[in-house]
Fold each of these.
Amino acid sequence: MQRAGQIKVQTLNIWHGQYEYELRLHSIAKRIVADAPDILCLQEVIFWADGSNSAAWLAYKTGYKVAALHPQPNSTNKEGATIGNAILTRLSVDEAGYVPLVADPRRDMNASAVWFWTKTPYGQTPMLVLTTHLSWGVSNEYQRLQEVIDINKLAKELIAEKNYDNALTILAGTFNTIPDADSIRFLTGRMAVQGAENFWTDCWAETEASLGETQTPRNVWIKTQAEDLDTFDGNRIPKRRIDYIFVKDWVFGQTGSPIDSKICYAEPMSMGSRPDASASDHYGVETILLDIFEQK
């Protein structure tokens, strides 16, 4: 008899800004424990000069494992640190890695992807999880398109290497662009590029959730950054969905089928100098996926 369990996946851009950083990490750790995601993809993890990093700190505080981790050097970072990507999990970690994406000659910080292999908690289906932080900036869409082409190729190569035709493949992170941009259209099969075709399911769109935006002037930190840049009215900052969770290939009604999505890490911290502020300048995204298994 077939039954279905659930896989809870979250993605969150921690935000490397130093405003209330320690309090924000404590708030994120508290939410991780309360939500108990199976997989948490993190972007803008800070790597400090002493060798420590914020992803390892969150793992220590919550009892999670760091499944994958790697920095992206940035010599212009005023805090004297580097940022990067990480994945935390409650599941097994079978293999993990890091891949730099196509370099942007205009910038000194390249995008990258970290990944790890595990198995779904109920059906024990091979599962590949990747997270990334694509290039930032409204004029960098061509660069982001090249980066997602790299990611799509990477996923195919990792699956072929293992010969896991039935693998559930998840891609989550900060893509720094809107759903109608070329990079997202390529990922979701609405545009073929350079002879490459593919299909990733946008979990937010497929669950038809009225989620709002992951970057919005409702977020205190967005307006704070706008004020730092001498923006006259922070409420004029565009509302955008720039954080995503994707599942590769046709999964509807199968293991990996998205059944629910929502915003997460959006609640006020209720502490510090800005108790009305959330834990990051991004809101996170959470998706629930089916995990179908045979009951004996």
Amino acid sequence: MRGPQNEVRAVTSLGVDIGTRMTKVIGLSTKGDQLEIQAAINFKLPADLILNGVVQEPKTFGRLLEDQLVPTGCRFQEAVFSIPTNLAVLRWINLPSLPADELRQAARYKVKRHLPFPVEEAYVEATPPAIEDSEETGTSLVIAVRRDIVASRAQAILYAGLTPIRAELEAQAILRVIERRLNSLSVLWRDASLTIIDIGGSNTHMYVVQNQRLQFMRGVKFGANLFGRAVADALDVPFEEANELLSLPGTALDADGIATISTADGPIRVNLSDALDKLTREFMRLLRYFRSLHPERSYAGILDQVIVCGGLVGLDGLCDYLSKCLGLKVESAQPIAGVIARFNRESFQSISNRQEALAVVMGLALSGISQQVTEEAVEHAGHEFSWTSAA
């Protein structure tokens, strides 16, 4: 019989994905190996509350977040929040194997000439370098973000009555979700090359992961808003209404790039081929560029499959369309697969239908769970920003 000292403690974590117009929140709980979503929130932000990644009025944001959390009846003490990938400077730099603090200082010295802002005004972190047996240094991913971006978001979380324990790049939150998925597969699949495409509203990023390590990352300055604007222009409706139409259940994309939108007044067909062509051209350009960096037929240049995430990805038929254009197997991220929900079936079904938009916030919540379960906050500093009020 198990004694109280051997009981598995339940751990809770709150992920807060702060966008320019919207904020997504997921409250996660785990006991043993079972993950449970306790709360899932999506709310709009006032215009200009977030400018260039900085929360202009942290107290206003904090009160909005607190007001959204109260009706859930869930109590959370700590939160992990997002940093947009496009607001970070990322460089692969050769560094020696050093203790975390010394590695961070070496990274600051090496990366400062690459920054568009003074290194004194930035948080800088570095992943442990990948060092071969015969080498003294190895490649480390160095990440720099302006302090005002991180600090304003942390302050906003504090105003919500929460303790901000970590800031994490959107890219790393997505990779955390993908890692959870890969861990359920065989070793052969876990080590395969994988391309991740994150279609945001105004930015789209492509990542290549090999041997469970990020090898390549590039972004373009357009995304799902292209499709919202195409629908708005075709139907002569406001942009916000167009986005809502695209997210309606039953909306589907055919092989010619025509979206059929199911409405109460009957189906509406909108041609999205121009926006799709622009997006797929950029994907092909990035794929060709990545392959050009490696010798022909080398393992590093092989791309096996694509996983896509972002709010638009739930559009039925999009993965098939991209697969046809890219000539690769394309799947959606499905970040909440295998997770149970505490709230009612209807609410869970509504987020399941568009779960690809939750990849970042789910990754943030998993990050908090990971930190509490492993109790390795300092050791994790090489993978994501650890924020403290003393910083």
Amino acid sequence: HILADSQATKDDLVSLWSVESDKISVLYSGVNGRFRRFDPTELEATNSVRERYKLGNQPYIFSVGTIQPRKNYRLLIRAFAQIADHIPHNLVIAGGTGWLYEDILREVETLNMQKRVIFAGFVSDEDLPALYNHAAVYAFPSIYEGFGLPLLEAMACGVPIINSDTSCLPEVAGEATIQLAPDDENEWA
């Protein structure tokens, strides 16, 4: 028997691998209790996390995930570049580098956004709740996810979310987020 972390993953197993549907059960994930909305005192106490990742005092749009094409960061960076001159926010992307990450980093240079797009690198699990809580918005433009745990983490922290309307993300987010096509740069802007 197979446990799938979303109906979308189950559907993929059935359609791509011809697995019999009755041999798959969906078992959704949850988040650790440390992912929660911080009160103002906790926000103040976690400013050191902002300092650790060199985020400054500016508000920021946050995204978490390995730097790779599937996460659709090039679209997010291009959309952010369209509005950057009109908002005080920076774009903060946390995550280690994965396959074919070079074009994503190059996109920032091409658009001359080095001072506004911050790659925080790998972030420890202990720091993530503070980074979500300090964010003005969480952006999740991914093209494909098996579950999308960062959506639950951001929701648990009370951060407004914009995510792709593809794969399992609408299933995980329900009606709690703004959902956009993962290829519509203008809508993301």
Amino acid sequence: QVAEQQFDVLWRVPARGDMRLGIYVRMPPNCESEVEALTWQEGGTFVERFSITCDGGLTGQQIEIEGLSSTVIDVLARFERLDQTTQVRRLTPAEPGFLITASESWSEVASTYSLLGIEHILLGFDHLLFVLALLLLVPNMRMLLWTITAFTVAHSLTLAAATLGWADVPQQPVEAVIALSILFVAMEIVHWKQGHPGITRRWPWLVAFTFGLLHGFGFAGALNVFGLPEHAIPLALLFFNLGVEAGQLMFIAAVMLAWVLLKRISWPDWVWRVPVYSIGALAAFWTIERITGFA
């Protein structure tokens, strides 16, 4: 919102080559465009910017994403009011629209950012592979508790520091080192299986804490893309982090359940190499890919 009845709209749509996804912003009937929209392409994204005038403003009006109901993606909508407060909503094919309100309740912030946190961790395969590698290396449940707690505390610290502007770390090198951390833990599993346990086997919580600091900067990069409501930054940060933890615990529970079921089968001695070498190979590929991306 730039004036009582004037608004600037920025719309980003995923693209593949010159083909853009067929979803469009449908503004309320009381809104009219002032000038023709500006459109351009940035890498894999089509960007559209336009200005509108809405008779009576947007409060109480519904904004829809046309075409979203026939897709399998989500849309993040962010409305910035004239008083610097914001309203953020995650739109889905089942719920492709939202109502502009005069203010956003704490429960809406909590719901939106906790779901964003869960979604981010469950779709963040590099973070999940790191956790999986730690699970394969940790000797017992007590140590597993310490290890996951250390990882949680570490990435919570750097997530908060980066999001609040206390630390500024370039995102591309961080992503490369995150991939390298997965490769490191995979190599530690191989060394342990060969009779040469390293620092990760002896003190997995220390390695989890150290690399967790880097993973927190990775989470912060994603959160910066989503944006934070100016009037509720601590609340949004808290629930995004809780969402990340909830998603992480879901993944750990699924792995532990799978492990209980697989233990009932008699496997050959070499079978452990399959997941470990798969993790290591994928991590090595990511490391090379991410380094060449900014070199």
